[in-house]
Structures are given as C-alpha cells and as structure tokens.
C-alpha cells in the first residue's frame, strides 16, 4: 500500500475515532453541549475553515521548506476551524462559547491521525531530523530520524486520557474549558517538536508552525483567563456546564 493510501486510511480512522469520542461524551457521560454546534451553518463554517486553514498553512510550510507543492496541515486545520467558527458566530449573533464539544475529539483525532503520518513514510514529509537515539526510525532513506509523529500522537493520547478521567470524575473546569486546554496543550507540544523537524525557517530559528503554535497557545491562555473571569463574575448564578465555546 502506498504512503498516500496509508495516510488516507488513517485519516478515516481519525475521523471515526473523533466521532466515537464525541458520542461517548454525549451518550455515555450525558454531557450537554450548545445545540448550535450541530446546526448546518455552524458545521459548514467549521469544516470550511478547517479545510482552508489546513491547505493554506500546509502549503505555506512546504514553500518555505523549498518544496512548492500543495499540502495539508493538522495544525492549520485547527486554526482555520477556530477562525471559521468565530466568524460564523459573529455573523449570526451567537454569544455562547461552543468549543467544549470538540476537546476530546480533537485529541483523539490527532493521536490516531499522526500514526498514519508515521506509517506513510518519507514522502509524507512529517518525519523528524536525523538522530542516534535508540528509538530512531528509518523512513526509507537509510537515515535514522526522530519519529516526531509518534511523539505528537503519544502526547495527545496522554491528554485524552487525562481528559477522560476528569470527565468521569465530573471535573467542571475540564468539561467547560477543555477545548482551550486541548488547543493550548497541542500548540505547546507542537512548538517543541518543531525543533526536531526539517522544515524551513521563517523567522530566526522558527518555522511556520512554530509561529502558529505560539499563536494557538496565546489564544488558549487568553480564552482560559477570560473564561475564569466570566466564572468569577457569575459566582452567584447557577453554573451551566454547556456554556463552553471556541
């Protein structure tokens, strides 16, 4: 099976795993999320934003790296989805915070999808830089490299596990603000792994995804901080678990 076919297959697995995670939250754990997140317009904005961001940042990174081809990026998809949803909400007057539904699906989807990136081989251009570490992997060119895809997969799987435990224990902060935590953690770990990738730099030692990762972390910290302020200001009111948003 070609690397492209393997990658595509695991993309399907990733979407399936994300869907199962979403169902577990609502059907098993009985967590309610804002109904707007299942409306056609909202979903369309999310998908369109994710697709646009994935291609835009993936292609930009390849151009900067000296490989001018069209490509896709998981991180670009995350950023694009956030922007797409925020624009939709502004256009339709939705004031609720709606991202909580996507915290676990995001973590699980990345954890599964990155395995496909690893198995796709050298042509996928998601491999790491050369290393002599004992767990180095030869992606087909005879050079042992960091399996950074598996680093990212393991990191997001660990986040997913912690999130699941928190949800089962009814950790309100994790349920309400889990998406910000997921995005912030994703951006932080991705920033670290970028130093182990052969991508071209765009600002000093930093790649396109270093800058995007930093932007996601800053956004997540801001959203967490303002969410805390909202919670404090409403301390005398009934707390609605479903009010969590991108």
Structure description:
The radius of gyration is 18 Å and the shape is globular. With 246 residues, the protein is mainly alpha-helical. Helix 1 runs antiparallel to helix 4, helix 2 runs antiparallel to helix 3 and helix 6 packs antiparallel against helix 7 (208-233). A hairpin with a 5-residue loop joins strand 1 and strand 2 (144-145). The strands form 2 sheets. Strands 1-2 form a two-stranded antiparallel sheet. The chain has helices at 3-28, 40-64, 74-92, 103-119, 148-168, 172-193, 208-233; strands spanning 137-138, 144-145, 201-203, 206-207.
Entry summary:
With 246 residues, this protein is mostly helical. The protein has helices at residues 3-28, 40-64, 74-92, 103-119, 148-168, 172-193, 208-233, and strands spanning 137-138, 144-145, 201-203, 206-207.
Keyword list:
7 helices; single chain; 246 residues; globular; two-stranded antiparallel sheet; two-stranded antiparallel ribbon; mainly alpha
Largest sheet, strands/sense/barrel: 2 strands, antiparallel
Strand order of the largest sheet: 1-2
How do the helices and strands follow one another from N- to C-terminus? HHHHEEHHEEH
| Overall pLDDT | 92
How big is the Rg? Answer: 18 Å
Which structural category fits the helices and strands? mainly alpha
Q: Regions with pLDDT < 50 over 5+ consecutive residues? A: 231-245
Contiguous helical run count: 7
Q: How many strands in all? A: 4
| First-residue to last-residue Cα separation | 38 Å
């Amino acid at each position: 099976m070609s690397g492209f076919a393997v990658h595509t297959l695991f993309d399907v697995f990733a979407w399936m795993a994300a869907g199962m995670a979403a169902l577990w939250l609502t059907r098993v754990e009985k967590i309610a999320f804002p109904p707007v997140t299942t409306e056609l317009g909202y979903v369309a904005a999310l998908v369109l934003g994710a697709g646009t961001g994935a291609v835009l940042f993936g292609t930009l990174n390849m151009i900067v790296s000296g490989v001018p081809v069209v490509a896709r990026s998981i991180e670009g998809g995350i950023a694009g989805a956030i922007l797409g949803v925020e624009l939709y909400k502004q256009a339709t007057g939705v004031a609720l915070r709606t991202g909580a539904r996507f915290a676990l699906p995001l973590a699980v989807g990345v954890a599964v999808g990155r395995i496909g990136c690893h198995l796709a081989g050298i042509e996928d251009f998601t491999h790491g830089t050369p290393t002599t570490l004992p767990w180095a992997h030869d992606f087909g060119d005879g050079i042992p490299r960091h399996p950074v895809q598996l680093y990212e997969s393991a990191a997001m799987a660990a986040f997913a596990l912690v999130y699941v435990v928190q949800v089962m224990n009814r950790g309100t902060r994790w349920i309400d603000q889990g998406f910000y935590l997921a995005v912030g953690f994703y951006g932080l770990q991705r920033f670290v792994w970028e130093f182990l990738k052969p991508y071209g730099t765009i600002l000093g030692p930093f790649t396109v995804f270093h800058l995007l990762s930093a932007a996601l972390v800053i956004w997540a910290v801001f959203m967490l901080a303002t969410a805390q302020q909202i919670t404090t200001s409403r301390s005398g009111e009934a707390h609605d678990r479903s009010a969590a948003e991108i």
